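Sanity check

After download, print the first record. It should look like this:
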Amino acid sequence: MHTQKGIAPIIIALIVALLASGGYVVVKTNPGLAKKLGMEKQVEKEETKADKKGETANWKTYKNEKYGFKFSIPKDWATTQESTGKTFSESSVSVTSPDYKTVLHPGELEYYELVQGGRITIYVQEPSPKSIRTLKELSDFNKLGRDGGPDFKNERVIVVNDEDALLYDYEGGSRGGRGHKLELLSENRWVSIEIQYVTADGSKIWAEILSTLEFTK
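Expected structure tokens:
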């Protein structure tokens, strides 16, 4: 398994490739593990590179001291610190575009639908729950409801820099818009990155933001 610094190139290589190629990722499948988990492999190898130059040099930097990571965003974008407790959902930070907008849908299953712009949310839980220490346990957990509902689909096992990970796609549903989610376990950490957007026009900016992600400890 990789150290926390080692997670950065894993995440960047996967997400940048995913966005740049419109849904394909620069990785290889793990046939044995995929078969064990009963997943269909929907991954295509295609080389691509992240554009780390240009406007990113003038962006502002967000640094998370608690979980040891930093990244850059355009000056008119915003970050929201949500690391207020010990649960997975609270140990996170979100990045939103200037035009980011959600609409509340009240009712028994109240939720906010994304209707404009986009958002990236990075979750890090350390240590990971005792019940989730393998990719199989993480997959089973997701199928129970956290990410296993109608919004998330196309679960597949991928390998990035020899690290096994789970990748999901979704469109519409209670989250609104469309997006991708990557989840991996490294050492004793559970790392999850979710990207939501309404249109595909902003895919380049998401790739550029994630190309600046760096783990600092």
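If your output differs, re-run the checksum step. Summary of this record's structure: The chain has a mean pLDDT of 68.
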